[in-house]
Amino acid sequence: MTNLDYSDLAQLSLSGELIDRSTAKGILNATDVVLLEQLAAAYKVRHHYWSNRVRLHFLLNAQSGLCPEDCNYCSQSKISTAEIEKYPLIAQSKIVSAADRAASLQAGTFCMAISGRSPSESVFNSVLEAFQAVKSKHDLKICACLGLLSEAQTQRLAKAGVDRVNHNLNTSENHHENICSTHTFRDRVATIKNVQKAGITTCSGGILGMNESDEDIIDLAYSLRELDVTSVPINFLIPIAGTPLADINQLNPRRCLRILNLFRFILPKQEIRIAGGREVHLRSLQVMGLYPANSIFVGDYLTTVGQSASNDLAMIRDAGFVLENPDGSILETENTQNLNVEFKQSELSRDSV
Ligand code: SF4
Questions:
Q1: Would you say the CB of residue 262 lies under 6 angstroms from ligand 1?
Q2: Domain boundaries in the chain?
Q3: Which listed residue (111, 145, 180, 256) is catalytic?
Q4: CATH superfamily, region 53-352
Q5: Angstrom distance (rounded) from CA 281 to CA 258
Q6: How far is the CA of 73 from the centre of ligand 1 (A)?
Q7: What confidence tens digit (pLDDT) does each residue in 201-224 have?
């Protein structure tokens, strides 16, 4: 469909109305000729809620590999033969030191992930203690990505001052069984609801490029809207050798931009983050992704390396975007220019968030 009126579409999204399925398909299948028009409309919506501000998140993979689940995209799963570093929960001092780095990079949110279906009691207790240590030292928001969580666990996270929990839906309910057999889409939804019951804000998004159909992408966006999640990380699959999805490459930079635009039109107010796969799939068009999205990770991903923080900051600054704190206040760009941003998170990283 090439005859969508993108100006009307922006207005519709801003009015809070849901974009219908046929229009959503039209967005995903629009020609390259109208890509700039589509991006301009998505930016109108993004700008209304987020102006030209960009939020930075910093990610730490605090426990890697050794996971009993079989998520097809993940290098840490029990069925993956990918050569990744595997380690149990790292020491609290290392977690605090990673938070120090997050603060030095002007990231407003410190995201900490651990591999696994859900944390054992002893790991959970250590994680809570580490979060309290980070909170006592830094004014960082903490986002915890700990797998499936019970209501009792989310209540304890809330008491420990955790600001946000990440738990991705990953894909549509229909497609979920094609990418994982050890837990269900419903299990994931239940965790998000437990997080919300505890009064913690929710971060939940997806991974695109996993053999899903356009219908699946649209269903995922609708599900995230229905759940009213606060923050939406959009990962583009990094096919990792040794995982069942190693040979898939269904994305190109323009397709990624259309996907980001679609999520912005369906989730107008949400914080939308370009997460794993930004460098691999958007490539030279990375900065264009900031017209629909308003947030990125600075540093690396679960088990793959991201572009240098200095390049990220230059990209943001060159396009006239400014960094913001999680409370919406603007960070001094002069300060960011003086950062020593050559940091590379060499031993700690992630694939999707
Ligand atoms: S995504 Fe999480 S639950 Fe799934 S295999 Fe990877 S670490 Fe395990």
A1: no
A2: 53-352
A3: 111
A4: Aldolase class I (3.20.20.70)
A5: 13
A6: 9
A7: 999 999 999 999 999 999 999 999
